Amino acid sequence: MSTLFDEAKIGGLGLANRIVLSPMTRNRADRDGVPTDLMATYYAQRAGAGLIVTEGTQPSAIGQGYVTTPGLHTDAQVAGWRKVTDAVHAEGGRIFIQIMHTGRIGHSSLHGGEPQVAPSPVLAEGQTFTYEGLVDNETPRELTTAEVEQTVAEFVEAARNAIRAGADGVELHGANGYLIQQFLASGSNQRTDKYGGSVANRIRFAVEVATEVAKAIGPERVGLRISPANTFNGISETETEELYPALLREIAPLGLAYLHIVESAGREFTRTLRAQWSGTVILSPNNDGAPTGREHGEQAIADGACDLVAFGRQFLANPDLPARFRAGADLNEADPATFYGGDHRGYTDYPALAV
Ligand SMILES: Cc1cc2nc3c(=O)[nH]c(=O)nc-3n(C[C@H](O)[C@H](O)[C@H](O)COP(=O)(O)O)c2cc1C
């Protein structure tokens, strides 16, 4: 049986181990969405991961939902990402950039007064951070059918830009209540065109994005993250047990690099999905809210639930997490106060083990 420290392959890419840096938004790009030198340092510090999946990155200005998140739709952003990928590769790491269109999550003030866009004009209750502070969410504007097709093209362009920036691939963010999951979930998708209504129609956007991005950059460079039954960001999903198997049936023939499951629906459903997916599975295990630790990862692999395990908060606080796991060393604690935004503090100053 494999362990977290065994080598692995995704697509044609060799990975040094099965420990993945979970995608984590850290809001340290500049106001134009350009990745900073500090971000290059942060990711290079974590290059001991078998695979780094970066923070969510907007494919378009309207796809941005939070302050100072990076983008992949301008030349300056591509140049910024190039510094990040070069720094990671110089340390022997592998890096996929997560493409995250936040859909209805966000605020009009982030893009010159233009409202957020979504499958349907359904408000996600709650509040969001803007440059002016915490404000109520707004009702999004419904995308026209032509605009949905245009949005697929934006994912494709962003993926091409990721490759231009030197990334090894992209992860499509279909989880956690952002645009792709807003299409999947009946609560946020009340459309009557080919993108709404039946399960076959609600999965269409995800399938088109995956298909077109795979065509553009090669399926071996594309991963997809999903979070069945997630309720975060006001998501209410119906027919989860029909929806995700239908989605996987459609995308399995593409031969993507991996499927990344956020285990919101529990281990049994993970197993159901895994049985349907002949390729690689990365799992972000459900630990009842506890940060994923070595024991959770080892259990998930022992259960046959996945091939690789994603570590979020523990990797955030321990830049050399794989080395610490190997050594059985103590871990630094993550400080939630510095998760989102700020400077190097709580970002690049978590100490590595003394050697
Ligand atoms: C600060 C922070 C930012 C996050 N940002 C993202 C993100 O941009 N994209 C994403 O798919 N998940 C995001 N997540 C979720 C993580 O990828 C992960 O699924 C979650 O933290 C649970 O894993 P853990 O227990 O190992 O921390 C974020 C989590 C944290 C703590």
TrEMBL record:
Keywords: Oxidoreductase
Cofactor requirement: FMN
GO cellular component terms attached to this protein's record: cytosol
Matching Pfam families: Oxidored_FMN
Enzyme class, UniProt record, top EC level: oxidoreductase
InterPro entries linked to this entry: Aldolase_TIM, OxRdtase_FMN_N, Oye-like
The EC number(s) this enzyme carries: 1.-.-.-
Gene Ontology molecular function: FMN binding; oxidoreductase activity, acting on the CH-CH group of donors, NAD or NADP as acceptor
Superkingdom classification of source: Bacteria
Name of this protein: N-ethylmaleimide reductase
